[in-house]
Amino acid sequence: MLQYAAIFFVIAIIAAVFGFGGIAAGAAAIAKVLFFIFLVIFLVTLLLGVVRRG
Fold first, then answer.
1. What's CA 40's distance to the chain center, in Å?
2. Are 30 and 9 in contact (CB under 8 A)?
3. Do residues 38 and 7 lie in contact, with contact meaning Cβ atoms separated by under 8 Å?
4. Per-residue pLDDT tens for 1-53?
5. Phi and psi for 19 in degrees, rounded to 5?
6. Sequence-distant (≥ 6) Cβ neighbours of residue 35 within 8 angstroms
7. DSSP letters for 1-54
8. What b/e readout covers 14-28, taking b as 16+ CB neighbours within 10 angstroms?
């Protein structure tokens, strides 16, 4: 999932360079959402790992 966020981030950067503002904003928004979903899943699995060991 983090890979998809990075891909959409790169698409947003490339679109911004070429001046496609709407496409860049859309790709950046998707990348941001995927990154936060990844972050939440990472924190949940980290907490579950700590709880199971303790």
1. 11
2. no
3. no
4. 678 888 888 888 888 888 887 888 888 888 899 999 999 999 999 999 889 88
5. 90, 15
6. 2, 5
7. -HHHHHHHHHHHHHHHHHT-HHHHHHHHHHHHHHHHHHHHHHHHHHHHHHHHH-
8. ebeeeeeeeebeebb
> Are 38 and 2 in contact, with CB atoms under 8 Å apart?
yes
Query: What is the C-alpha to C-alpha distance for residues 17 and 21, in angstroms, rounded to an integer?
Result: 9
Sequence ranges of the domains in the chain: 2-53
Q: Which residue has the tokens 């790709």?
A: 27
